[in-house]
Amino acid sequence: IFYETVYSSERDFFIWSSLNRYKNLILFLEYNPDSKKALLKIIDTANHFSITEFEFTSNEFLSESICVGEGMAYILNDDKVLVLDLMTMDFKEVKIETPGFTTSHFLFQNYKMFFIKDLQELFYLSSSSKETNYKYSGIKLNYVNSLCGYGENIFIGTIDGWKCYKNNGLLVYSFDDEYENKVECCNENVVVIVKNNKFVIHNLNRFQEAESRTVSSQGRDECDDIISVIISYNNLIVLTKDGIIELYSDDNLNIHV
pTM for the complete prediction? Predict the structure, then answer.
């Protein structure tokens, strides 16, 4: 296997976020915990891997991912949302009322970047407007642990179930549970909910129709907790805490992905 190094972090800096892509651009965050200095790096793969960077300070919280949509990049940092226009490279910040962020629950949908504040309330920034103020969605819950969306639907996982809203704040469906539910992924047909070592597929055409599976224990007495589920074409790929990966295809499921 041959590879070529196109970038290396500076001393005392760590690559903090996952890699993101927009057209020919690769975006990621770097952070120096000692100096509290953070860098947003943009590598242009179509221009000899040239690098553009934006420096800022992060004292309490810096999101481990970047939300990219419609030519805009969003970062949660302390009590601010940092916004970069990837066409003009215009970089700005939107101040959020304290307390600031503690988790990276955010998504881009229908020209809006939705984010959870205080693990309770859902707000959004509009990319199609020149407004710099964030707005309240009207959605407030006791405790939010996860967030995903598709089309006009927003799915929110909570300590005692999960809910589906339209992006205008209208409640579509609510599922109450004695266990914590995390929404992991969704598409136009299904939403996948994780409860410790079990995942549940809900049919979005009939919400009450669901199918649950438990990841193989590999000969052990207990099954691993699930940490991630993604939808890939007509398959579900499941990753557990101990590194087990399982693939579930439409042929093996009653509810088709």
Answer: 0.85
